[in-house]
Amino acid sequence: MRLLLLMFLNLSLLGGDEVTWHWKSPSTKIEAESKFVEADTPRVIWLYEPDNPAKKERLCSFERDAELIFSPDDSMVAMNDIVGSDLAEIRLFKRVNGLHYQELSTQVHDLCWALLQKRKKVPYPKALLHSYAFVKQWSPDSSAFLVNLSGHTDSNQYVEDWLCVFDLRTNRPTLDLSVLNRKSVIFRASPR
After folding, report:
1. What is the number of structural domains in the chain?
2. d(CA 14, CA 140)
3. Hey, which of 51, 116, 146, 150 would disulfide with 136, CB 3.0 to 4.6 Å?
4. Which domain holds residue 138?
């Protein structure tokens, strides 16, 4: 099952209109939203169940732009936190109970960039003026996710779409694609 999450962005910033960002988990059992009027004010993401939208649980706040990607089993939420025009980081939240998620301290951005630095023997990300890390897709068993790294300083120093897999079982990135494919193929012989 593809993890792509539905995100609806209402870009009606003209005249002080309210903007609403909306996300749904793959199971459709959880939805999230963030509403704001002023472009440069801190924002809050609220979680709720579609059959009870009045009862909301605060997930987190963020400064600029964000994208939520729920794991297939709703046990985790990855947030692509676009902190500024020069930085995008990944924040992870683990489900504690019901709609209550706790933010994890795992530094996915730093660990993935360190793997790139080790593998390619480059001074990134410190040599880059802009560095971005984004979650692209969860594994079917919700134990890993695909990370895309990009960044640049100029045409001589850049990273474009370098991929790795972050394994939650080890809390480390890897280039082993099989980690992302855990439980992606199930084939059982039919009983005779």
Report:
1. 1
2. 40
3. 146
4. 7-179
Query: How high is the pLDDT of residue 42?
Result: 80
Residue type, position 125, single letter: P
Best CA proximity match to 36, nearest among 70, 5, 11 = 11
Are the C-beta atoms of 131 and 87 separated by less than 8 Å?
yes
Q: What is the pLDDT of residues 144-156, one digit of tens each?
A: 999 999 999 888 8
Distances (CA, A) of 21 to 37, 67, 161: 12, 9, 26
Query: 192 in a domain, yes or no?
Result: no
Collapsing DSSP states into helix, strand and coil, what is residue 10?
coil
Using a 10 angstrom Cβ sphere, with 0-12 exposed, 13-18 middle and 19 or more buried, the burial of residue 109 is buried
The DSSP call for residue 29 is S
- Per this entry, what is the length of the chain? 192
3-class secondary structure per residue, 64-80: CEEEEEECCCCCEEEEE
Compute the distance between CA of residue 154 and CA of residue 34 in angstroms, rounded to an integer: 34
For residues 3 and 138, is the Cβ–Cβ distance under 8 A? yes
pTM of the entire predicted model: 0.85
In a domain, residue 166? The reply is yes
pLDDT tens digits, residue range 125-148?
A: 778 899 999 999 999 999 999 999
- Report which of 5, 34, 47 is spatially closest to residue 134, judged by C-alpha positions: 5
